């Protein structure tokens, strides 16, 4: 390999895409095209990067299977950064197998880490955890070790295991410092800040306060009865009842928990659960039916007692708390995904949220009218993101693998 390609590869490894372009910007041979594509991706021009990598993959000859596979891995990373979650994962799996067969385990493992990150984005924690167990991080370079630890931390955060998350983030920080890649160091720092920012809002006895993730974990380990409006479940230390597909029952449980130890008036229950302004006879009849269903669902956790003016929750033991999102609004789930600072397509959001694309598009349109999100591009290239904070730029989440490394 000639000296300019080697120099460009080293510049990319050091997180210097402009330095890499200085070496190969005017060249159109396959290795140079691949390096230019990775450099453009790190600079944020993802469309141009994708085009260059595809051109490089076609330019590599039939005997250069490893180089073509590396281009596929790099393109998969661009798709991840662009939140193109519908990108064909079978192509990435095939590329990783080809890299393994030719002894390039470094880039093969990098590709597998990208697949794990996709699992995390769409909430497939079990699949991500199983895939992580199959990767031996010992021989990985520092950058890949940092990414590996970030994946472990991501799973721990989503499972609300703060001690494991902190330990993984500390290891990720050490590996990122050793890699000397500024974008990677910044990502670890951003992930660490998640543990110090409000994760939920606690509502109890008419008062509210924000909780960090470690405080949420401590609350869940207590003997309290918790109506978790973040995950749509009701739980105590031993029993968890899912109300994900029962929004009316969840609304009733939340009102009863917010009113505890007092009772909740029928008018309030009707308004919050059914959207009715007044509790007429039809509403009262429906309320009795839904309360009966709630009693059945919560029988292992608490009772629901009728009172003169409404209903009251009767837990088996301990306090009653409501966990809600730090900020609640109609389309909070969509905003939560856009809060990562990256641009999302409506199809990717629909996949991550488990909702129809039409539902997500309506939510995005409503948020855009309120000035809370913005879009760019047209048609299938249209992307959505929250308005940027002045002084910050959106960067590629992961350093790209090097063709020829």
Domain count: the total is 3
Strands, count:
11
CATH hierarchy: architecture of the largest domain: Alpha Horseshoe
Largest beta sheet, briefly? 6 strands, mixed
The fraction of residues assigned to DSSP E strands is 5-15%
Task: Explain what this protein looks like in three dimensions.
56% of the residues lie in helices and 11% in strands. The chain has helices at 3-13, 17-24, 30-42, 46-59, 65-81, 89-101, 105-121, 125-133, 142-158, 162-179, 182-194, 213-220, 247-259, 266-274, 281-297, 332-338, 346-353, 357-369; strands at residues 200-204, 207-211, 225-228, 233-235, 240-242, 264-265, 302-306, 310-315, 320-324, 374-376, 383-385. The termini are close together. Helix 3 packs parallel to helix 5 and helix 6 packs antiparallel against helix 7. A 6-stranded mixed sheet has the order 2-1-9-3-4-5. A 3-stranded antiparallel sheet has the order 6-8-7. The protein is an alpha+beta fold and 405 residues long. The protein has 3 domains: 3-194, Tetratricopeptide repeat domain (Serine Threonine Protein Phosphatase 5, Tetratricopeptide repeat); 200-324, Arc Repressor Mutant, subunit A; 332-385, Winged helix-like DNA-binding domain superfamily/Winged helix DNA-binding domain (Arc Repressor Mutant, subunit A), CATH 1.10.10. Residues 388-405 have low confidence and may be disordered. Strand 1 and strand 2 (207-211) form a beta hairpin.
